[in-house]
Amino acid sequence: MNEHPLEQLIRKLPKAELHLHIEGSLEPEMMFALAERNEIVLPYASVEEVRAAYNFTDLQSFLDLYYAGASVLVTEQDFYDLTWAYLRRAQADHIVHTEIFFDPQTHTARGIDFLTVIEGIRRALAQAEKQFGITSKLIMCFLRHLSEEDGFATLAEAMPYLSRIDGVGLDSGERGNPPEKFARLFARCAELGLPAVAHAGEEGPADYIWQALDLLKSRRIDHGVRCTEDPALVARLAKEQIPLTVCPLSNLKLCVVDDLAKHNLRELLAAGLVAMVNSDDPAYFGGYLNTNLTASRAALNLGAGELIQLISNSFVASWLPEHDKTFWLAEVRRIAAEEGYAA
Ligand code: HPA
Ligand code: ZN
Q1: Which of 202, 240, 338, 339 is catalytic?
Q2: Domain coordinates in residue numbering, the chain
Q3: How many helices (H) and strands (E) does the chain have?
């Protein structure tokens, strides 16, 4: 099939990715290789069998496989290899800045040291900055299906390494685990100078987005697509320019939407929200950042202006220093103009 002309624009523009779970970039091939290296028996006979199991009906059906898959990650080298594989894909997609999530509780609960996890990830991030010029932030997520007390224990384990953590997040099963459950934990993180983000309004109601803003002081909302059920919330997100890190293929695979053509991404942009596209768990959801952008373009018939807006928003919503944001936003405009699209 011929490439749509806007796919070249998507490939050529520099981009930031702000919603990426590093454990969700574990491709089945690497899952098998690490299982063998660590002498772990997987409940699958082949890579094809793993891929065939990726038929999700909701968030929980995915999380069950995602946590099981992560059990092959044991050594510092495993976390390095995982992160490095993602960063090579990021470079291929012309991502110049990435803010990645990691889930320490998934690993420490299995007896893996916090230090093993963070050293492996950080070593790969440093290598990518040196070798590819990709800058990054690292965001520690708390698992919301666990207790707040468990979160406090994880924060205590993280204390010696806070200089290597750029912020905190909240992920895992949303239903029945509202942000308010973690209000004290996030207040403590704020005292420690850690900025917060939170998954909200993916499967959970718009009320969870209000809670993430008011009770957790979340600076961005991860997913947030259910905000359109509450016009007063949309007005607030627009007024305060709170970014939404939208993940279209994730929403499709987890049945948040039943058809990509019905996704509200365009509606979010039209409402003046700082929405952008991300890949979430690319190994499980069928594609990395450029695949998410090209699939969204095709399904929603997005125009050049909308794509340039989404990609510009990825920098606006990032935690890059202001002068870096200014630089990349000018680069987006310059390259778009070179490609024949006035921004
Ligand atoms: N939602 C909640 N938790 C997650 C996700 C997600 O999309 N991906 C990995 N953990
Ligand atoms: Zn996510």
Answers
A1: 202
A2: 5-337
A3: 17, 8
Match domain 5-337 to its CATH number in 3.40.50.150, 3.40.630.30, 3.20.20.140, 3.40.50.620.
3.20.20.140
Q: Round to whole Å and give the CA distance between 308 and 306.
A: 5
pLDDT in tens, 112-163: 999 999 999 999 999 999 999 999 999 999 999 999 999 999 999 999 999 9
- What whole-number distance in Å separates Cα of residue 314 and Cα of residue 318? 6
Residue of 172, 278, 292 best suited for mutating to test ligand 1, as the one with most atoms within 8 Å of CB = 172
Tens digits of residue pLDDT in 215-256 = 999 999 999 999 999 999 999 999 999 999 999 999 999 999
Per the annotation, the verdict on 129 as an active-site residue is no
> How many Å from the N-terminal Cα to the C-terminal Cα in the chain?
28
Higher per-residue confidence, 3 vs 54: 54
Q: Which sign does the torsion angle of CA 88, 93, 96, 99 carry?
A: negative
The one-letter amino acid at 286: G
Q: Give residue 311 CA to ligand 1 midpoint distance, Å.
A: 22
DSSP letter, residue 229: G
Q: Which ligand is nearest to the CA of 143?
A: 1
pLDDT value at position 1?
63
Q: State which ligand 1 atom lies nearest to the alpha carbon of 23.
A: 9
Strand partners, 244: 221, 275
Q: What is the DSSP string of 4-58?
A: PHHHHHHHHS-EEEEEEEGGGG--HHHHHHHHHHTT---S-SSHHHHHHT---SS
> How far is the CA of 34 from the CAs of 30, 78, 254, 331, in angstroms?
6, 7, 26, 39
Closest-CA residue, ligand 1 atom 2, reads 172
Residue 2 binned pLDDT confidence (cut-offs 50, 70, 90): confident
